[in-house]
Design goal:
The protein is mostly beta strands and 254 residues long. It is built from two helices and 16 strands.
Amino acid sequence: MSDNLYRKYMQRTMCLSCGRPLRPGAVSCPKCGSETGVIPQAAPQFAAVQPQPVTVGSCPVCGAPRFAGTGFCEQCGTPFGKLNGEPAVHQIPEPEVKPAVKPVCRRCGEILEDGQIYCTGCGAYQGEEPQQKSEAVPFAHEPEPVFEKELPRAYITRVSTGERMLLDRSVTRIGKDKTNSDICIPDNSTVSRRHAEIINRDGMYYIRDMGSTNKTYVNGHELSPLEQTHIIDGDKIVLANEEFSFQIMQPVHI
């Protein structure tokens, strides 16, 4: 090595942080940006001719030249990556190693080893418990008794004789004609052959005059021919001059 090259090499310094050779006068490492100071570099046993650095621009802060492969300015330490959108050259920190968390017993809190399925403290099983399927059992209800609906029974009572006659048809015909009457009044000549009808409609009762000669009366009210009138328990019915009492008997359950 010539004396001139050796003197130039001895004038170079190196970074205390990363060991990169620095140019004379540099106060910041172009590789790591450290400003901790510099130390003289020991002379090697042999030295090769170093290639000249390639300039790729200048520092946008202080204007010092920027060389290829550098991430920080040699004069002011400005990181080029943050200014130009390029990744800055820096040391990658080592990942933090967290201590492994040991499993504990779900019953007593005893620390368990990996894969241990029974607790050494209380003996509780630590594996997955099988899920039990709950089947809904229908509550057994006794069937309610079904009663046949009973409708009230209706009667008409002939006042002159005390005879009580059941109205058990949907339409009950009253007159003196035995052939065409359900309730026959043969011994009264004032009653027409087909004098009146009593109609049962879902437990509601109605009387209708069938165009009789001597008329039909309900509580003293004269009915027109074919006129239909609602009757209730205790009403007084008169066919010509034959008087009847209308009664409704409610069913009795024992």
